[in-house]
Amino acid sequence: MSRQTVVVADDLTSATEVASRMGSAADPALVLFDPSAGPPSRLAGRTCVVTQSRGLSATAAASVVRRCLESYVAAEQPPVTVVKTMDSSLRGNWAVELAAVVNVVRARVAIVAPAFPEQGRVTRHGLQIADGLLVHEGPAAQDPRSPVTSSRIAAHLETVGLLALELPRPSLDGGRRLTREVEAARPTTVAIVVDVEDDDDLQMIANLASEPDVVWCAGPGLARALVSVARPVVADAMPRLPAALCVVGSLHPHTRRQVLEARSQGVPVVHATDVPGASRVVGEVVTALRDQGRAVLCSPSSPIDRPDDLLATITRAVLLRQPQTGLVLSGGDTALAVALGLGAASMTVGGECSPGAPWGRLDDDGRTVVVTKAGGFGDGDAITSLLSALAPATRPLAASRPRRLS
Fold first, then answer.
1. CA nearest to 343, candidates 37, 49, 34
2. Which residues lie closer than 8 Å to 28 by C-beta, 6 or more apart?
3. Residue 1 — pLDDT band, cuts 50, 70, 90?
4. What is d(CA 270, CA 267) in angstroms, rounded to the nearest whole number?
5. 401/406 Cα distance (integer angstroms)
6. What is the CATH number of domain 4-230?
7. pTM over 0.85, yes/no
8. Residue 191: which H helix or E strand, with range?
9. Which one is the CATH code of 243-390: 1.10.3720.10, 2.60.40.3580, 3.40.140.10, 3.40.980.20?
């Protein structure tokens, strides 16, 4: 009997990264923004649910994940294979959320692999490393919502009561020890932390996708490998549009450098300001889109309450005046705020614009084309490259007919 796959992600960029390997433009994967809505009428094995739980308390995050997953487990026949995504820098409530998943599905084994080698995130001797630094010594340690205090993955698991077992890279012995440990009979659930330094390691882990009673706590690398094993697809070409706007709310240093690089290449960069200055910002962004076909909208340079909601409000106003505009959304919270601000409840994902940058369409009235990107991902010119891919022409644009948003 085949198994359906449900991906539970704590933010939007995590969900879209996995969904990009689950579907195509002709047969897209579905990303749902409301974890309380329950499963859609037809899953087709390609559903990701955004729990919006990264910034919650541990207790609240576990409760959201548990209630969300219970509805899927109860509704689905054949059985559900659960992939719980986790941040590749160990941010968020992933450990307590995994404990909730284990309890709901009564798993005997949880495989934990946050590595994403193509983005410089590896696991070595049970420690998580990003761009050559232990994650608790890098930008993740300064995360404003969930600062990372330990790079040892097992320490996070033991804190929530899970028994942890650390294993070396599976490619060192052809995956034999990992297979033995997964198949071993134990009186209690074990969370197996697997070292990963390249895609061969990820593939050997993903080869165990058919094992029964296993849940997966996966960084973007393993999550994508798992769903690719379950459903091999070829991504379709992304639509090209007259204009593209990048909306940046991420505070990650990589993102700041990408914005500076975009500015140096002539892309207009506009910083949001709270009312009454927001209307002026809308005008500046629309003018940039009409004149150059691309622009970057950043969160305010000085701290304000709910900056992502402000970015969402400005983006909505821009699209009302310049509707044939695609969006590049950088940062999971920002991406979700913009999507909800446009009235969307879900997103269909057809593939990747570039590695780590999925594209899809919102279910808003305008069927807005969006590319999402985690704040810490991408080279220095990532924003510029994504804008150019979404809107290749940079000639001046005629004013578009305003569109109506519900």
1. 34
2. 46, 348, 349, 350, 360
3. very low
4. 10
5. 16
6. 3.40.50.10840
7. yes
8. strand 190-194
9. 3.40.980.20
